[in-house]
Design a protein that fits this description.
Layout: H1 13-23, E1 28-30, H2 31-39, H3 45-57, E2 62-65, E3 71-74
Antiparallel strand pairs: 1-3, 2-3
Helix pairs in contact: 1-3, 2-3
Length: 83
């Protein structure tokens, strides 16, 4: 079993993103992707980024800049396929 999600509220946006990325470990999502996929485009990207800070700090998600210079979120390395 994986690590407990501690302060991550079950069913909240961070929990949904964590679960989706762990089920799709080779995918990465921008804040815009997350807004569309999980809030029907109703959340602002800045709110998405703010809402995921704790998940990133706790190591539940990785956050980095992709080759286009856009911030993306993905499953931690332990969940991804070896490259």
């Amino acid at each position: 079993m994986g690590r407990s999600r501690g302060a991550i509220v079950p069913g909240g946006l961070p929990d949904k993103v964590i679960s989706w990325l762990r089920a799709n470990p080779d995918e990465e999502l921008t804040a815009i992707d997350i807004a569309v996929k999980f809030t029907n485009g109703e959340a602002e990207p800045s709110d998405i980024r703010s809402g995921l800070i704790r998940a990133v700090q706790c190591g539940y998600l990785d956050s980095l800049l992709n080759d286009r210079g856009r911030r993306v979120y993905r499953a931690p390395e332990a969940f991804r396929s070896p490259e």
